[in-house]
Amino acid sequence: MSDPVRLEFHAGQAPYLIAEMSGNHKGEIERALRLIDAAKEAGADAVKLQTYTADTITLKSDRPEFQIHGGPWDGRSLHELYEEAHTPWAWHPQLFAHAASIGITLFSSPFDPTAVDLLDRLGAPAFKIASYEIVDLPLIRYAASKGKPLIISTGMATLGEIDDAVTAARGAAPAGTPDPVLLHCTSGYPTPHDECDLRTIPHLAQAFGVPTGLSDHTHGIAVPVAAVALGAVVIEKHLTLSRAEGGVDASFSLEPAEFKAMAESCRVAHAALGAVGYAVKPSEAGGRAFRRSLYVAAPVKAGEVFTPANVRSVRPGLGLAPKHLDQVLGARATRDLDAGQPLDWGMVQPS
């Protein structure tokens, strides 16, 4: 199957908004289909899945290191969590077909080479490497070898580990990904706002010369909007139909109306960035006439001295610029002047 769309990312573009489904389908394909519909209606550019099985991502083991301590999944084993949260591979063709039918892009995070192959066969236009997999350089190289855009989350990674991942993506044979998108990410579920460190976004762009964005796990929409203001060109946020209905990631996911508000706000933020410039904007052009200028504030006879009592800086702006006030005060009027006249140099006798 050929790619239905070719994704391209570059600095300065409007934010590309990804609705992360993750396990919020709760094991029901109809809910997964409704999530795709909801993402489209909420203004997302793409829906992202996670393609793994419990056995491809972890081992079924009772050893302590396979148990989760703290956070929303406290007390569960990795295998148990991923068995519940995974998106069955048998669903993938129907999910891809449904997304295409309503005009929204769908792609996924592969967690092993067999997942890469499945997604490639289905025509996924990009691959996303999750934060926990950023250290799996063989997986990154294999995904990058398909010659498609690669998006990499950087949660928990050191600068050196990020460099290793970028190098692996760029060096993959036969194609490689010269400009992977790096998503700044804090892998806390949820992420406290004061742990976001969004200033890392432009630093990543500068350090690696690649497009950057944000994979966000905070509550609310303020953090993604701020990220766009700092240059994020990709925003990834979890979507759920209803937090009240639960789901493995529901507690830190947005509901459709919230995602729509985020999408609108992110796009407004990007539009508001504009460019560096000091030209008068069309919306303010009419206001120039109402800036301050020098006016005759009281009647002045020819030869009379201008003083603060008879010359003032007021609105509108048809008189001399206020910066000339010191030159005018102490000078004399060349003729009789009425109150309310805009002052010009023809009214002022040179000192």
Automatic annotation (TrEMBL):
EC number: 2.5.1.56
Signal peptide annotation: none
Top-level taxon of origin: Bacteria
UniProt cross-references to Pfam families, sorted A to Z: NeuB, SAF
Cross-referenced InterPro entries: AFP_Neu5c_C_sf, Aldolase_TIM, PseI-like, PseI/NeuA/B-like_N, Pseudaminic_synth_PseI, SAF, SAF_AFP_Neu5Ac, SAF_PseI/NeuA/NeuB
Swiss-Prot/TrEMBL keywords: Transferase
Gene Ontology terms for molecular function: N-acetylneuraminate synthase activity; N-acylneuraminate-9-phosphate synthase activity
SMART domains from the UniProt entry: SAF (SM00858)
GO process annotations (BP): carbohydrate biosynthetic process
Gene3D superfamilies: Aldolase class I, Antifreeze-like/N-acetylneuraminic acid synthase C-terminal domain
Domain AFP-like: residue ranges: 293-351
PANTHER family: N-ACETYLNEURAMINATE SYNTHASE, PSEUDAMINIC ACID SYNTHASE
Listed name of the protein: N-acetylneuraminate synthase
